[in-house]
Amino acid sequence: MTNTIFKLDSVMKEYKTGDVSVMALRNTTFEIKKGDLVVVLGPSGSGKSTLLNIIGGMDLPTGGKVIFEGENISSYDSKKLALFRRNKIGFVFQFYNLMPNLTARENVEISTEISKNSLNIDEVLDKVGLKDRASHFPAQMSGGEQQRVAIARAVAKNPDILLCDEPTGALDYSTGIKVLELLKDINRTMGKTVIIITHNQPIAQIADKVIKMRSGEITSIYDNPNPVDPQTIEW
Ligand SMILES: Nc1ncnc2c1ncn2[C@@H]1O[C@H](COP(=O)(O)OP(=O)(O)OP(=O)(O)O)[C@@H](O)[C@H]1O
């Protein structure tokens, strides 16, 4: 019995546009343990979004294997990949990507409707501290509140993994810290595996595992024996 949730084995991604080829990921190999909070750290252009798209089942690698709970998702057809995205992954994006014409509650509700194992919407809104804002539209909320709605939307469908792309990138420092605290709380209390992709180095201090990337390659992977409370980090 293994507690590995993701295993990437020599994953490659080559983009070809006409005669031009870009190797966005080379020989990417690592494992992620169930329940870990992982930070993938790298500068712009290092391949973070490419990696996120591949882990999240939005794109396929051009080489290597992506094993999720023992199954090679890189051999899935588009229908199986869609089910994988729906049921296994909750996405959190830098700019929230909420539906502007839906309230906070409705934004969460639509994600629960497409998954088979969803949680109670009001309990999740309560968990992210937005019980009183359920009937507000995105334009009536601050950036931090909108990101909480986005996190609630990702959590409510009860995925195994929360995949977060620069979740604090559009927020001021103290709001960003609060969002990290919420992600850490969801990781610790709900047992969700959380993967945060960022260029913001201090965020690595909150992780159980850090994966550093540069120019499409992993430059280091290490376990952090003493992950800190987001309150204590500064940038
Ligand atoms: N669809 C695509 N077609 C061609 N090249 C691409 C494509 N997507 C990404 N690339 C290239 O692959 C490399 C890695 O890009 P990627 O977006 O994964 O990096 P990143 O670390 O997420 O950067 P950023 O933080 O700026 O978003 C870059 O050189 C980029 O130009």
UniProtKB/TrEMBL annotation:
It holds the Pfam family ABC_tran. The keyword Transport applies. SMART domains: AAA. The keyword ATP-binding applies. Its EC number is 3.6.3.28. Residues 6-234 form the ABC transporter domain. It is an enzyme of class 3 (hydrolase). Belongs to the ABC transporter superfamily. This is Phosphonate-transporting ATPase.
